[in-house]
Amino acid sequence: MTLSRRRILLAGAAGMAVSALGTRSAAGEATRGAAAAPAAWEHVLSGTFSNYGTLEQAWNYLYPWGSDHNGTARMYASGTDHNHVYLERSGVLAIKATRITWDEGNSSADPYLPIRYHSGAIHAKEHVTVNDTFPQWEVRGEFQAPSARGTWPAFWLTGANSWPPESDILEYKGDARNWFNTYKNTEGEWSNTIVPVSDPGGWHSYRAWISKANATDVDIHYYLDGDWVGAHRGANFVDHPLWIIINLQMEGSSGSPGPTTDTFYRARNLYVGRSRA
């Protein structure tokens, strides 16, 4: 979710080829992972979109740092303001971005773009922290994501105490390709797996399996609709707590001008689990 230059490891047809390979290998990988995993598995987050009580027990509104980030949308949401973040029905969270017609100044976050939209974000109260106690994590959800020019939806993890680390499980930047991204370390090393998606506005599942590889690093396996699409290895995430964020940003890296009509981003079946050593 930054504007940094990113190193593309898998893209286009190559990404689809890896996806096909992953379809064949995922079952074997899962079997090996299950055999090696600690016996205790804990459900950290699920069923939180059933009503506003469960939503607000597990999630905070806005970004962890406030209302602004790196696009032209300012986040608006609270327990009494459901214009942009609301439960469309039991189990389905909706975020709506609306074009504004007045001058609201510029974003307070780099690159300080003019605010042209009101939108929404939520972040989980529970952190993902890979360590000796919790060496494996699963983070997944189902989403209907906009992909038109100027729309920038995301489902991602980012450092609670510092940046990096970052892991983007869902990120569309103005076209029908999902970016699975990992910012590995402070030296600016990105890994990117870019996968074309048929009809991003339909329901698709996005998943990250994160496992401790050594004293400092994790391996992250990314999945789309149950198919393995790529592995990013050697990410310096161990002992770094991570926020879980769902947001609909606009323009910025997704291009401009963005849409003039309302844009919708929906989520359901959000799940987080972890192993206990």
Layout: helices, strands, pairs:
Blueprint: E1 8-10, H1 12-36, E2 40-45, H2 52-58, E3 59-61, E4 73-75, E5 85-89, E6 92-99, E7 117-119, E8 121-124, E9 136-144, E10 151-159, E11 166-171, E12 177-183, E13 190-196, E14 204-212, E15 218-224, E16 227-235, E17 242-250, E18 263-276
Parallel strand pairs: 1-13, 4-7
Antiparallel strand pairs: 2-18, 3-8, 5-6, 6-7, 6-18, 8-17, 9-14, 9-18, 10-11, 10-17, 11-12, 12-13, 14-15, 15-16
Give an overview of the whole structure.
The chain starts with 7 loop residues before the first strand and ends with a strand. It is built from two helices and 18 strands. The protein has helices spanning 12-36, 52-58; strands at 8-10, 40-45, 59-61, 73-75, 85-89, 92-99, 117-119, 121-124, 136-144, 151-159, 166-171, 177-183, 190-196, 204-212, 218-224, 227-235, 242-250, 263-276. A hairpin with a 2-residue loop joins strand 5 (85-89) and strand 6 (92-99). It is mainly beta. The chain has one domain (8-24, 41-217, 250-276): Sandwich (Jelly Rolls), CATH 2.60.120. Mean pLDDT is 89; it is low at 2-35. Strands 2, 4, 5, 6, 7, 9, 14, 15, 16 and 18 form a ten-stranded mixed β-sheet that branches.
Q: Structural class, please?
A: mainly beta
Number of structurally distinct domains? 1
How much of the sequence lies in strands comes to 35-45%
Do you know the CATH architecture? Sandwich
Q: How many runs of DSSP E, i.e. beta strands?
A: 18
Note the overall shape.
globular
- Helix fraction, binned, reads 10-25%
Succession of helices and strands: EHEHEEEEEEEEEEEEEEEE
Taking Cα atoms only, what radius of gyration do you get, to the nearest Å? 18 Å
Identify the CATH class: Mainly Beta
What is the mean predicted local confidence, pLDDT? 89
